[in-house]
Amino acid sequence: MNIRRSVGVILLLFSFVCLQAQERFVLKGKVVDFITVQPLENACVHNMTSGLMVFSDAQGNYALMARPNDTIAVSRVGFNVEVLVVNDSVIDNHSHFFIRLLMKSIMLKNFTVYAMKPYPLFVKDLAKKISYDKVDVPGITLTEEEKMQAVPRSEQGNLLANTPLAHPISFLYEKFSRKARLQRTYKELVSNQDEVMRMAEKYNADVVKRITHLSGGEVDEFMLFCGFSYYTLAMSTDVEIEQMIAKKFIEYKQYKSANQ
User: Fold this and answer.
1) Predicted confidence band of residue 244 (pLDDT cuts 50, 70, 90)
2) In the prediction, which pLDDT does 131 show?
3) What is the residue extent of each domain of the chain?
4) CB contact at 8 A, 160 and 166
5) Distance from the Cα of residue 159 to its chain's centroid
6) pLDDT digits (tens, 9 = 90+) for 116-141
7) Mean pLDDT over all residues of the chain?
8) What pLDDT is attached to residue 29?
9) Which of 40, 120, 158, 165 has its CA 20 to 30 A from that of 202?
């Protein structure tokens, strides 16, 4: 009886180990940009359940051991972190699974370039007595709005009061200090996030499906084939993007036919 019991326990353990081994699989595919579906290199694909971690290559490819219900976190500098659970949908496409990351910011807003003299010459120019109706200082370029804001403080007057050049040292600090750069970057990311969402409305998988009637993984493959840039999508209207998709779809079908 003891022998039979021991054999039964061994068989049970062996079956359990085999079952566990069968559950493991290689999750592989591409890490791509959420909107353009272009490959992202050096994206970190981290299986938070097992602790395994890999990085995508130049083509966005990755391969990682996983099991059902594992939690996968994908991150890359400049993109939002994507967290997913290995469910039936992931398992069904485990050999060609696209992971999309949404960019935090696309383009910087307009900026002004100020042409400045060396500081000693700049001080000498400001020290000169200048009439109140003159707000142009040689070597300094101001916008019309900044000229309107210029307010003299004294008889000799600081004609650049209330402008970015009111105090050159402060101006340089605000432009080049680490703290100031971080603050500007944060504001730019927040203000430009609406551009990301707007482009996602103009160009996404649903729009592609409606025009091409593709489905499943073919949608991702086609969007990867399109290769539209952020600039192209930002500068194009909804109708123009739909026309570009239709044109690319003709090229895509020709490409598929030639490579079958």
Assistant:
1) very high
2) 47
3) 24-101, 119-179, 203-258
4) yes
5) 42
6) 445 555 555 555 544 444 445 455 55
7) 75
8) 93
9) 40
Number of CB atoms found within 10 A of residue 105's CB: 16
Give the count of beta carbons closer than 10 Å to the beta carbon of residue 160.
Answer: 25
Q: What is residue 122's three-state secondary structure?
A: helix
Query: Domain 24-101: which CATH class?
Result: mainly beta
Q: Is residue 82 within a helix (H) or strand (E), and if so which, with residue range?
A: strand 82-85
Residue 47's DSSP bridge partners are 72
Tokens encoding 170: 């402060």
Predicted pLDDT at 113: 47
Residues 118, 120, 121, 126, CA torsion sign? positive
Terminal-to-terminal C-alpha distance of the chain: 62
Angle at 165 between CA 164 and CA 166, to 5 degrees: 95
Q: Which two tokens stand for residue 245?
A: 């998709």
Give me 195's structure tokens.
């551009």
Q: What pLDDT, on the 0 to 100 scale, is given for residue 145? A: 64
Q: What pLDDT was estimated at residue 232?
A: 85
Q: What is the token pair recorded at 76?
A: 């890359």
Contact status, residue 135 vs residue 147, Cβ threshold 8 Å = yes
User: Between the CA of residue 234 and those of 34, 109, 186, what are the distances in Å?
Assistant: 15, 13, 21
Contacts (Cβ under 8 Å, ≥6 apart) of 103: 33, 34, 35, 78, 79, 80, 196, 230
Residue 152 contacts by C-beta under 8 Å, 6 or more apart in sequence? 132, 158, 159, 161
State how far the Cα of 157 lies from the Cα of 234, in Å rounded to an integer. Answer: 45
Radius of gyration for the alpha carbons in the chain, expressed in angstroms and rounded: 29
